[in-house]
Structure formats: structure tokens, C-alpha cells
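Reading group handout, session on sequence-to-structure problems. Before we discuss, look at one worked example. The prompt was deliberately terse, the way you'd type it at a terminal:

> structure Orotidine 5'-phosphate decarboxylase

The input record follows.
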Amino acid sequence: MTHHFGSRVHAALEARGQLCAGIDPHVGLLHEWGLDDDVAGLERFALTATEALAPVCSVVKPQSAFYERFGSRGVAVLERVIATAREAGALVLLDVKRGDIGSTTEAYADAYLDPASPLAADAVTASPYLGFGSLDPMVDAARKHGAGVFVLALTSNKEGPEVQHATTPGGQSVAALMLDHLRSLNTGATPLGSFGAVVGATVGAPDRSHDWDLAINGPLLAPGYGAQGGTVDDLRRIFGSTAAHVLASTSRGLLRHGPDAGGLAAAARQANDELTVLRAG
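And the output record:
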């Protein structure tokens, strides 16, 4: 890769907009499309969606679990999704949320960030809750290969605050500490760092009771936009001056327009149009 991920995602946001399309073959969506819950249905669904959405979105985000549940043949479909999306000019953020220690994290990094791997993506999601330093092998691999890592910081699931809002011995929240680590990794990077935060589109805007500083000089992945309830107004309230760096992620909100490829592409264009206000300030 000739440019680091931060540079590539910054250019993609400028050229293609802020929509991140989730390619998540839920059982229910397969059935809505009139497909069977088998590898053939998975392949038809995933490739149809990718071929329609990747040409018009800056980033596509396949959730690995929906492919892994079919075993090796499902993973083979995931490999094709990654290749197809890249051929269409989209960046690929592989949603794996991996987090472990030592050689295991290094192996995950080899699987998802090394260009020699058939599963290599432009970036991955990762969990820091074995300690942020446990992600060092992923960080090192991302730097070596020009890739990116999006670290869970403020998720919108109801269980998240149990950990993320807890207070550290230093008196700040765990989420704020994760954001501090990312800010440090991105120091001095231009036009944008390669290490992003995952911040849900429904977490609520920071107020006096929160110590979150989302200005990390990196991209911000906001899942929960669209069908899960997050709106453009929510994104503006939550991200404020950092809204131009947000990738607003939606899956079901787009995929329900399938299996018609034209309907999928039109829905993506409409969402991107709605998100332009984030770059206007």
C-alpha cells in the first residue's frame, strides 16, 4: 500500500462521502431476499450487496461472524467480498473485534492486516479490554503494512457502560483512556492518523458528566446509524467538531433495499447525501 490508512480514508471521505456499508448476511435478511440460509444464499447475498454498494461507498464493512458460521466455505465468500470491494475502489474495514495477547494478537494481525493473507483488509476492528498494550502487535502490523485499526471505545450496546464508563485509578473513564491511547498513536499524522475509535451513533453527546474527547486525529466509526436509531442530528451532537472524520455505519438500513442492485445503490447515495451536513460543520 503506497499510503497509510489514515491518508487513504481521508481521501475516501472527501471523494465518496461518509457512509460505511455493512455487508452483514443476517439470517433474517437472507430470508427477506428470498434466499436460503446456506452457502449459496450467503454468496448470492454478499456479492450482490458488495457489487452494488462498493462503487458508491467510501468503506464497506463485512462482519466476519456471519461468514464464519458457514465454516471454510463461508470464509471463502468473505475473501471474495474483500477482493470485490477493493476492485470497486472501496476501502474494506473487516469487523472482527479481535483482542488477545502476545503471539495470538500477532497471528490475528497476520491474518487480517498482512497483504500476503487472502483475508487482508484495509483496517480491522479490535477490542482493547485486555489492556490497550495487548493490541501492540496489531498496531505494529498496521504501521508496517499501511493498514488501520479501529478500537472499541464507546459502544452503544446497553452492557457497554459497565466497562467503558468505569473509572480508572487515575480518575478518568476507561473510554477516555482508550481515546487518549489512540490520540497518542495518531500524534503528528497528516492528514489523519490510521488508528480510529468505535463510538456508537446512539451513545449520546458528551456533557459535563462525561470526559470523552473525540478529537483523536483519527477516523471515527459510528455504528448504529440508520435502522438502529442513530440519525444525522445524533452524529452532529455526539461528534461536534470531529464530525467530518466520522464513518457512519449502517447495514440493515441499506440491505433491506435488496436484492435489487439499483435499489441498494440508490439507498447508499441517498444516505451519503444526507451525511454531507457533517462536513459542513
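Points for discussion. First: Strands lie at 19-23, 59-62, 91-98, 123-126, 148-154, 195-199, 220-223, 246-250. Second: The CA atoms of residues 186 and 193 lie 5 Å apart.
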